[in-house]
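Session log. Operator J.P. requested a structure for one protein chain; no other inputs attached. Running the standard single-chain path with token output.
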Amino acid sequence: MCPCCPQAVTALFCLLARSGFSKASVAGALMFFPPEPSLYTFKRYDSDGNPIDDDDDESVPDETDDKKTKNKNKNSNKSKSYDLCDNNDAVDNSGNDVNVSTDLGNVEEAEFQSTRTGKKPDAHKKSSIKNSSSKNSANGPVAAASNSSDIGDNSDYGQYYEEDHIQDMNLAERAAQLRKRGLVRNKKDARDAKRGVTYKFIPDARLMAPPAFTGTIDAIKIGPDSKTDTYVAAVVYRLRSARQSDTTKTLIYSHGNATDIGAMNFMQAVLAKGLHANVIMYDYSGYGASGGEPMEANTYRDIKLVYDFVRNHMVRDRDESKIVLYGQSVGSGPSCYLCAKKPNVGGLVLHSPFMSGMRVLTPSRLLGCLDVFPNIDRIKDVECPVMIIHGELDEEVPITHGRALHDAVPKDLRRAPWWVPGRGHNDLTDGRANLIEYVERLSRFMEGLN
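Structure written below.
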């Protein structure tokens, strides 16, 4: 049923009425589907480095205790440096940090345990997930899952499936649950910030282990946002200082809709190694360990928080030309939004992007009042080189969207696009050959920014 059909229009307007005629609530319910459960956790540690059991989280220090530890927490936060120039805490025994073509191991034989589209895997795959997650080996359950060879060359780097109780909810119930959960997380993150809590990133054991990375990997919460009080969960892959130069870039990666930074961990490692770049991936409000509610406006606040953090802590001399924005699918929305407002950003990569949210559903402008992420309008205002990647067989967001965006980029800023033959929306980098070509093409684009 397409949204230009009477039934779909009726359903949308019913949803609009139930939301109190809030465009933002309707768009959020239709556009955002956070993985349930998320494919990672942020293990929490107190200011002394002791793990915090989430089951005992209600035992929070009172206001007097907070005042006593205020100076200690301040010192702890200051000692946690994100200055890349001082990043000497990683040991490099390899002598070579970046040979993706030989370092991907058995990518073709790797099994991934769910789908990035939000649909549950079929029965035999789901059974395989349960079995692989219970295996033990010398390297733990991650290695056990990684050594499977059932899927062959159809691997998908960043997937999940939703729990039945989430899929069975109607949009209104689902939105209410996400809103309530976001408020709880905001309060928890605010308490953690006062207590000087730090985090360790732990991806789901069912996912393929990423290639070895000789820099540092930090799990952080960025915030709070001045309006929503939300903290954004992010994972930072940072090169060692010995691997950096004056041309080193930092990539801000805004992922697709039905995934999170746990599912994207493999790709984050590949990009950091293959591009000789620092890479930060973050979860939108309402996704993973981030607080808040998944809404269009909140994604703009999220990426601005991340951008300010990167500018202040991850690039030398706060040089914004060393920042590259990367938006995949729904991530093209916040990426285009911010890029149009930041004239000094170094570059923009759009991966399976859309012209706008409603145009994915229908070319009709009948429901234009509900449209979100008007990328086709914003791309005209960017002032940096732009590369677009799109699968020729994409059925979720047809390649006409990618081509239209490419044509809308100012001519002097267009860079060679990659129209990927034989690939759809979620499988552009599946298989060793495509993954290597992907990294090589991105590398050429990044080198051209210098």
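Operator note: Residues 1-6, 58-80, 88-101, 105-168 have pLDDT under 50 and may be disordered.
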